[in-house]
Design goal:
The chain is α/β, with parallel strands linked by helices. It has 9 helices and 8 strands. Helices cover 43% and strands 24% of the residues. The two termini are 24 Å apart. Bound molecules: S-adenosylmethionine.
Length: 243
């Protein structure tokens, strides 16, 4: 299952890899963005045509909070969708309920860096929306006593095209980076944001402008969590999952 499957940039490669390893898959995607769901629907149809006995799927164009299922899942992916949850504890509780007894959840979420600081700030200021990052997830894991593993991947993002004046592509890129429609920004506000990006970037010899950032890849198993609860006899997470 993928929560926040979007158009499935990651999911498509992941599922193809599982099929190459001769696994049978029933894939469920959940995402409120209907346009992106259609894209996932299309590549899933291709996969199921190619391997009908090994691959079935169902895409639900709803948000996680409204998704109902009597099924549980062996693998739950949350690939860059964690930021958008309306409320971290109840959404996490829902994810937990969807994991099968031997199941695993894999969460890719950005670490707070200079690159995503304007996104958090603007979303808070303009939409009163808090974006959640790896730090929030670790805090939740620690409060709920959930054992997890994580790796941090550091990389550079090429933002050269953000600085191309009067380009539609540059506007789309800035909208994406800041998570807002920059049409409504004054030229001086836009310049302020570009200066911010520039001052946190490095210029390569090739002329490309790159900004450093990182992503955390976390995973946890329900079984390990339940063993931990038994060991420590901590009622805290039991309350969370049974309320
Ligand atoms: C950055 S995209 C990631 C898409 C996909 N996982 C990928 O790797 O290509 C994040 C997705 O989370 C979805 N999303 C936002 N709020 C959500 C919610 N409450 N429940 C489920 N998905 C949500 C968005 O619609 C968006 O498609």
């Amino acid at each position: 299952m993928s929560i926040g499957c979007g158009s499935g940039l990651f999911e498509k490669h992941f599922l193809k890899k599982l099929l190459e390893w001769n696994k049978s898959i029933h894939f469920v995607g959940v995402d409120p963005n209907k346009v992106e769901c259609i894209k996932t629907q299309e590549w899933c149809q291709e996969l199921s045509k190619f391997q009908p006995e090994k691959f079935t799927f169902k895409i639900h164009p709803v948000e996680l909070e409204k998704f109902e299922s009597s099924q549980s899942f062996d693998i739950i992916l949350l690939i860059h969708s964690f930021y958008y949850f309306s409320e971290i504890e109840s959404s996490f509780q829902k994810v937990y309920e969807l994991i099968g007894e031997e199941g695993i959840a894999i969460i890719a979420v950005a670490v707070k860096t200079a690159f995503n600081l304007p996104f958090s700030y603007l979303n808070q200021r303009l939409y009163q929306r808090q974006a959640f990052y790896s730090e929030d997830l670790y805090q939740l894991f620690s409060e709920q006593n959930i054992p997890f593993r994580q790796e941090t991947i550091e990389f550079l993002v090429n933002i050269t095209k953000c600085f191309q004046k009067d380009s539609q592509f540059s506007k789309h890129l800035l909208d994406f980076i800041f998570g807002v429609d920059t049409t409504y920004f004054s030229p001086s506000q836009l310049q302020f944001l570009l200066d911010y990006l520039s001052s946190n970037s490095q210029k390569l010899e090739s002329g490309e402008i790159m900004i450093p950032t990182s992503t955390s890849l976390c995973y946890f198993q329900k079984k390990e969590q339940e063993e931990e609860i038994k060991k420590e006899n901590s009622g805290k997470f039991v309350n969370l999952i049974s309320n």
